[in-house]
Each structure stands twice: as structure tokens, then as C-alpha cells.
Write a structure and sequence with these properties.
The chain has 206 residues and is an alpha/beta fold. The chain contains seven helices and six strands, in the order ββαααβαβαβαβα. Forms part of the polypeptide exit tunnel.
Length: 206
């Protein structure tokens, strides 16, 4: 089991904690991590783009001019792609970008990125994270005391004082233990997590 330091909100080490190898000490599977990121980014796409082909554009039922004798190339419709107001060649149509991934693969990918944060010393455990009021400066002071700039802050409870205090900080995002995902952990680099949240993650994903 990996031992990591536990800090208070002033950035001082107050304890250590043993992390479960079942969650924070697995073999990193880069392929599954790649698939998980692809799946999440694909799920964010609406897929509602649409343009009309020549068969869908209204009008154009009559030949614009006679077949022969004009000196121009023969034309059958003013709604052909080469005309203004005509249809689009190979027009985009609505589609579903969803990539399927089973639960075991998702869990393995999440464990892989959590393990990588531990291996790279980018996982910071706090004994608690409580703010008396909604104040961005207080949240920034906590992160500065840990010498962390960008971070994903994982909470066990929906603490609005912390969530709203972190909202305006660039490169910082808060998440609950049931909303963490592979993409955010990779995007924000550092992970700041409370002791309670660590226990909850180990309960759910071990």
C-alpha cells in the first residue's frame, strides 16, 4: 500500500494515510484511459449538424434552359451543388457519436489515472476542507499552501462554500466522489482530495 502525507488547510503535514492498492495501486492501462477520454469527449458532441442535399432543397424542378444550342453545359436543375442556392455535396446529417464502454473498463480506467496521480506525486490529501464563508481568496490560500496551481478538488459532501469559492479560480474544478471522471483528472493535473473522500472512493471502486 502507498503511504501519502495528509495536510491541513495551512499546508502542514499532520498525518499519513495508507491508500488501497485496489484503487490507487493498480497497473496503469493507457489503452483504457485513452478509450475513456474518447468516450467522454464524444458524449459531449451534440451531433445535430444538418445541411440539405440537392434532393432536399425546394425548387429546381424545371430545366434552367434547353439541353442544346446555348453554348453552356447541359443542366437539369438550378438546385444542383454548383448553383447558388443548390444542395450540398455529401451534406452532414444528424448522427450519434456515442462510444460504448462497459462498466469494468470505465472503473479500470479511473483506477489507472488515480494510480498515475499517486505515482507522479500529484495527489494531495487534506484532513478536512471547510470554509466559513464563500470567499475565493480563502480557497486560493488553501491551494497556495499546498503549492498547487491547477487542481481537481474532490469532496465527499456537497459543500457550497467550497464549491462556490473555487468556481472563479482558473484551472480549478470541484467534483464529488460520485462525479469524478478520467478526463477531469487528466485535464487538471493535480488532485486535491479530503480524507473522507478517499475513504468513499475506496469503498465504491475497490
Amino acid at each position: 500500500m502507498a503511504n501519502v502525507s495528509v495536510y491541513n488547510m495551512e499546508g502542514k503535514q499532520v498525518d499519513t494515510i495508507e491508500l488501497s492498492d485496489a484503487v490507487f495501486g493498480v497497473e496503469v492501462n493507457e489503452h483504457l484511459v485513452h478509450l475513456a477520454v474518447k468516450q467522454q469527449l464524444a458524449a459531449n458532441r451534440q451531433g445535430t449538424q444538418k445541411a440539405k442535399t440537392r434532393s432536399e432543397v425546394s425548387g429546381g424542378g424545371r430545366k434552367p434552359y434547353r439541353q442544346k444550342g446555348t453554348g453552356h453545359a447541359r443542366q437539369g436543375s438550378t438546385r444542383a451543388p454548383q448553383f447558388t442556392g443548390g444542395g450540398v455535396v455529401f451534406a452532414p446529417v444528424p448522427r450519434d457519436y456515442t462510444i460504448s464502454m462497459n462498466k469494468k473498463e470505465k472503473r479500470a480506467a479511473l483506477k489507472s489515472v488515480l494510480t498515475s496521480r499517486v505515482q507522479e506525486n500529484k495527489l494531495y490529501v487534506l484532513d478536512e476542507l471547510k470554509l466559513g464563508e464563500i470567499k475565493t481568496k480563502d480557497m486560493k490560500n488553501v491551494l497556495d499552501s499546498l503549492k498547487v496551481e491547477g487542481a481537481l478538488v474532490i469532496l465527499n459532501e456537497n459543500d457550497q462554500n467550497v464549491i462556490l469559492s473555487a468556481r472563479n479560480l482558473a484551472g480549478v474544478k470541484t467534483a464529488l466522489t460520485n462525479t469524478i471522471n478520467v478526463y477531469d483528472i487528466l485535464k487538471y493535473g493535480n488532485v486535491v482530495v479530503t480524507k473522507d473522500a478517499v475513504k468513499k472512493i475506496e469503498e465504491v471502486y475497490a
